[in-house]
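FIELD: query
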Amino acid sequence: MELNHINIRAIDQEAMKDFLVAVLGLEVGDRPTFDFPGYWLYLDGKAIVHMQACDRNPDDVGWVDHIAFGPFKFAEKTVELDAAGVAYTYADVPGLDLRQIFVPGPEGVKLELQCPGDAGT
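FIELD: result
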């Protein structure tokens, strides 16, 4: 298992993108066609920061939306989560053979478990 990326929320995505590019030397790169705006910022060819918009409404917990780990096998991991009584949701990434399992945790922490090769299963 490895840390895959961190997803952050920003009210002003342009300013946040420009800040991360200027300070960390990240590069704006390809991003799947999600139904919400955002950016994927790359380091050495890997999208390590994913960005999405937020409006800081009361449901928003902070600027970190989730932290992603992987790789996992979807069927094996969901059996394990079900057996442990852990709640989760899942989604397929548009245009990629990737299924995501989202697991909410205490104090607003959300984990994304990436399951490459398992989209549509």
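FIELD: remark
The chain is about 20% helix and 40% strand.
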